[in-house]
Amino acid sequence: CSSDLLVVAGKTTGSISRFDLLGNNLLYEVAPYNAPFPSYQFLFQSDEFTYVSFYDGRIRAFDKDGQVRFNSEQPVYYRPGVLCVNDQYVFAEADYPVTGEHKLEVINYTSGVARQEFNTGFDIASIIESNENELILFGNTNGNGKIYSYRSEEHTSELQSPCNLVCRLLLEKK
Questions:
Q1: Of the segments 11-25, 28-42, 118-132, which one has the largest average pLDDT value?
Q2: Which letter does DSSP use for residue 122 in this model?
Q3: Residue 13 carries which DSSP code?
Q4: Band of pLDDT at residue 143, cut at 50, 70 and 90
Q5: Could you tell me if 68 and 53 are in contact, meaning their C-beta atoms sit under 8 angstroms apart?
Q6: How many Cα neighbours within 13 Å face the side chain of 122?
Q7: What is the pLDDT of residue 154?
Q8: Which pTM value belongs to this model?
Q9: 3 state DSSP class of 166
Q10: Are 75 and 32 in contact (CB under 8 A)?
Q11: Residue 164 phi/psi, 5° resolution?
């Protein structure tokens, strides 16, 4: 997001609001749909869009005018959390409240349909794109930090353990 724009979301009763800080204007507002329960889980800002994960499982992207430009397929049985986006995919933490599972959901960007799901076994705190084919996932389990790598090649994808990630990073450094 540029330094003259601000996007905020109220978790329980507030809306998603985008402000133009230079002009002191509210550009758009998306009302909460689930009050008094939480509506929004996480925001991710790309150059063009604001991506929002909703407690009901939806992931949407809003353009600068508040128009929906991406909508994930419904229904899903997880609550999406942390997000990361590239030209091909939307990556989301998938938290299954009933089972307590934590997964990485890979969603096709153009269709909004889920492509793959990987069981991480930990709560994802952050997802960072390392390059066009790799993500680094940061998270924790019972207070223990976790770092994993998700690699996507043309025909395969994998979630690498910390040991494999460290070994690969050490080999690449040589």
A1: 118-132
A2: S
A3: S
A4: confident
A5: no
A6: 19
A7: 55
A8: 0.81
A9: helix
A10: no
A11: -65, -40
